[in-house]
Write a structure and sequence with these properties.
The chain is mainly α. The chain has 20 helices and six strands. The radius of gyration is 25 Å and the shape is globular.
Length: about 625
């Protein structure tokens, strides 16, 4: 029936048609589940099953998180204990540890900047963009909308492998004799545009650019797939207003990526022309070693505009998937419907729109017209409104709920805490007058690490703990999970909260050493405290990694399809889910995703028909 209708009216693939008839490509009849995946390579390496690709994104992202986190510890040790010898790191870092006549080892200044650059690049792109969105968009979109797989499993596989190749190139740049790129993760010209500017601006910068262009290809391939799948492959009855909130978040995130990442690619294209062909898009009146270079007429501010046109949507590309995950986890574990479902959807859409018109609030100190700055101040403050709507609705969802305090719900609640405390400081930075004092200080580091870095990690952890049984058929250890949560929550606040005070005192970020600044000497103790807290917090993340891999093989087995008594479709698949997700026919959706504690019933799955006298949907 469905096939006939879709064949005769292909143009009418609108919401009403999908809700009435659904979409089923009869995958099961043609492919017989998993039988066609006959060997190790096609099953685990070049898999086209969205669930396996999600695991690939997650584990690759975890490896990158360990590398990026370890880099931050090395440069924090330089900042916190500049008088201590780092000679013990020489077997790992080689010539980047300089040892003096007394045998005292210090980090080479150029490599300090390379570590800061690589740490930012790795965490923003490879962990929080690919690791978070790539994992959960892949895992949950087909399962939650009732689809066999993504619209194009081949493109889905390619999106992971472009990400993997991109990461491999970035990793290779760490081993160059001149070192990796060291001009900051934002890659502002002229350091990024002149190969001779510093050692890291040579081959390291070239590999950095190639890596990120390939990364953009990965994001675009994934994004096209996510959008097409959500629009076209929803099962019968799954209207857009019945979608679980994670799917709305992943859908809008994919749209943001498609619209903003190509702008970054264009910025890199012009940058490579400046580097290799002698053009002057970003360069003008440059002197190196007293000699004038042949560059006239360019503007480094043009690069900033292009970069931040991606850079601010990128903040929401990172945080929106966490919004969706947290909304789902809180509702399931509070045993309550999500408060204000439609307001949550509209706030996601509002954030996505406003994300494109606030980019220059990163540029208040770049010399832009103050009247233009006022425009960006206003919209920066306005974007706080839909964010506040979400926070209010999360708190309202928790209020009066019968909350289960498991690791997933704890991290979701911790996310709300981080998002509030980190978001409030954004109001200060969004004010162009206050930004004169706070720009490029540790206040900025504190703000974006709490609201974007740590909060996004909390959303990711909530998702991993919650859907781990769906991925691996086992549970992660709950005691270790709670220990991980409390250690990370307290540790993250100990690391980043003191940085606000450093920033208000004017301590600049990206400085290798403060020895020559007498005025900053009395912050030595605070720097030591932050460094010790960072090392301990990193240790708790290793506890998570141990718990994760141990649980894959030794965790408590999943024995029922729906261990959390949740309503969404992913918990209707068999415990051991084959490629195609559901044996036989796809499920039919009868209601929205958040019927908890309704009419005296604890939970009502989406596939249960509307009962007589029951109010329809939300």
């Amino acid at each position: 029936m469905a096939t006939a209708v879709l064949t005769t009216a292909p143009v009418k693939r609108d919401d009403a048609l999908i809700e009435e008839f659904g979409y089923d490509d009869h995958f099961h009849e043609h492919h017989h589940g998993d039988k066609y995946q006959s060997n190790f390579v096609s099953h685990y390496i070049f898999s086209q099953d969205h669930k396996m690709i999600a695991k690939q994104f997650l584990i690759t992202g975890m490896m990158w998180a360990i590398i990026g986190g370890a880099m931050s510890l090395i440069f924090r040790m330089q900042l916190g204990f500049p008088e201590e010898s780092l000679a013990w790191l020489q077997p790992v870092l080689g010539k980047w540890i300089a040892i003096n006549e007394d045998g005292v080892g210090t980090l080479v200044a150029d490599f300090y900047y390379a570590l800061v650059t690589m740490h930012g690049t790795i965490l923003v792109f490879f962990v929080l963009t690919a690791g978070l969105s790539g994992t959960f968009s892949n895992l949950l979109i087909p399962l939650m909308i009732g689809a066999r797989d993504m619209a194009s499993p081949l493109l889905n596989m390619l999106s992971y492998w472009f990400f993997f190749i991109s990461g491999t190139i970035m990793f290779a740049s760490l081993f160059l004799s001149t070192g990796p790129f060291a001009g900051g993760w934002v890659a502002y010209p002229p350091l990024s545009a002149l190969p001779q500017a510093m050692d890291g601006s040579g081959a390291g910068m070239t590999l950095w650019t190639i890596s990120l262009v390939l990364f953009v290809v990965s994001v675009l391939l994934g994004g096209i797939n996510y959008i097409t799948t959500v629009l076209n492959l929803r099962t019968k009855g799954m209207s857009m207003w019945r979608l679980p909130l994670p799917i709305w978040a992943f859908f809008v995130t994919a749209i943001l990526g498609l619209l903003s990442f190509p702008v970054l690619t264009s910025a890199f294209f012009l940058l490579m022309l400046d580097r290799g062909v002698g053009t002057s898009f970003y360069l003008s009146d440059i002197y190196i070693g007293g000699a004038a270079l042949d560059h006239v007429g360019g503007s480094p501010i043009l690069y900033q505009h292009l970069f931040w046109f991606l850079g601010h949507p990128e903040v929401y590309i990172i945080i929106l998937p966490a919004f969706g995950i947290v909304s789902e986890v809180l509702s399931v574990n509070a045993r309550k419907p999500i408060f204000g479902y439609q307001a949550m959807v509209f706030s996601i859409l509002a954030i996505a729109f406003l994300a494109f018109i606030v980019w220059a609030h990163h540029m208040f100190m770049s010399g832009i017209n103050p009247f233009i700055a006022n425009f960006f101040v206003i919209f920066t403050l306005i974007i706080a409104v839909p964010s506040a709507v979400k926070v209010f609705n999360w708190i309202a969802t928790l209020y009066g709920g019968d909350i289960r305090f498991n690791p997933a719900s704890l991290f979701a609640i911790g996310f709300v805490s981080m998002f509030i405390s980190g978001g409030l400081t954004g109001i200060w930075l969004g004010n162009s007058a206050l930004d004169i004092q706070l720009h490029d200080t540790y206040f900025v580091v504190a703000h974006f690490h709490i609201v974007m870095g740590v909060a996004a990690f909390f959303g990711m952890y909530a998702g991993v703990y919650h859907w781990f049984p769906k991925m691996y058929g086992r549970f992660m250890n709950e005691t270790l999970g709670k220990l991980h949560f409390w250690g990370t929550l307290i540790g993250a606040y100990c690391v980043f909260w003191p940085m606000h005070y450093l920033g208000m005192a004017g301590v600049p970020r990206r400085y290798y050493s403060f020895d020559n600044f007498q005025t900053f000497g009395h912050f030595d103790g605070m720097n030591k405290f932050i460094t010790i807290a960072a090392i301990i917090t990193f240790g708790f993340q290793l506890l998570f990694v141990i718990n994760f891999f141990w649980s894959i093989w030794k965790g408590r087995k999943l024995t029922v399809k729906n261990p959390y008594q949740a309503n969404t479709l992913e918990w209707t698949t068999p415990i051991e889910t084959g490629h195609g997700n559901w044996p036989g026919k796809l499920p039919t959706v009868q209601r929205w995703a958040y019927d908890y504690s309704k009419d005296g019933i604890d939970y009502i799955p989406q596939i249960q028909p509307i009962m007589e006298g029951e109010t329809h949907d939300h």
